[in-house]
Amino acid sequence: MSSTSHPTPFLQALALSGGPGSSPLIRGLTHTWGPGVHWVCGEEGSGKTTLLRLLASDLPPMAGHLKRPDGGVFWLDLKGSEHDTLTVQACWQALQARWPNWNEALLQELAQALDMDRHLQKQLHMLSTGSRRKVMLIAALSSGAAVTLLDQPFVSLDAVSINTLKGFLEEAAEHPLRTWIVADYEAPSGESQAHVLNLNAQTS
């Protein structure tokens, strides 16, 4: 379907199909994501979250396969009630133990910038929707993974946090060795179409 060439591929989908039901939302997708920031865009129900889950191996594919980098693919979903009793600090500490390139200094910087340093000992069920999303975002950006997946990261965030995240992504776009894949309804204005995968075009 869509194929993009990069000199140093980090994550590659080859004829990938899958979805949560018997009729896959993602059908025969071949695409390569290299260094920098890439966007997966589309309308509601176009398969944005499904694709991220497939890329993270959180959802098994129905067909095709993935070539994944040695540095890992970071994906985190804390929406389920099974995470409710974890404190913010305990959540981050558990993740730090799993990611060898975890950047603790960046975590502290982001926690302060996103006003989460005062919530470290709170359990996740005590947090607002926006603050709970901040826990996921701070962990994702601090993970040090070769590929980081972000699903609609700006939802429920305050203006200061949105600007902080946008600034981070602007810097990440120039990174030569790491990849970020962001799913949202549309890419920022002026974003190069070479870095945008439009799922509306895949399903039309």
Care to describe what's here?
The protein is an alpha/beta fold. The protein has a domain at 1-72 and 147-154 and 179-204: Rossmann fold (3-Layer(aba) Sandwich). The protein has helices spanning 48-55, 88-96, 104-113, 129-142, 159-172, 199-203; strands spanning 11-18, 26-33, 36-41, 63-67, 73-74, 147-151, 179-184, 196-198. Strand 6, helix 5 and strand 7 (179-184) form a beta-alpha-beta unit. Helix 3 (104-113) runs antiparallel to helix 4 (129-142). It is globular.
The SS-based structural class is: alpha/beta
CATH superfamily of the domain at 1-72 and 147-154 and 179-204: P-loop containing nucleotide triphosphate hydrolases
User: What's the average pLDDT?
Assistant: 92
Strand order of the largest sheet: 5-6-7-3-8
| Amino- and carboxy-terminal Cα gap | 12 Å
Uncertain runs are 1-7
What percentage of the residues does DSSP assign to strands (E)? 15-25%
Stated plainly, the CATH topology of the domain at 1-72 and 147-154 and 179-204 is called Rossmann fold
Q: So what's the oligomer here? A: single chain
User: How many runs of DSSP E, i.e. beta strands?
Assistant: 8
Radius of gyration: 17 Å
Order of helices and strands: EEEHEEHHHEHEEH
Question: What global shape is seen?
Answer: globular
Largest sheet geometry: 5 strands, parallel
Number of helices: 6
Give the name of the CATH architecture of the domain at 1-72 and 147-154 and 179-204: 3-Layer(aba) Sandwich
CATH class of the domain at 1-72 and 147-154 and 179-204: Alpha Beta
Fraction of residues in helices? Answer: 25-40%
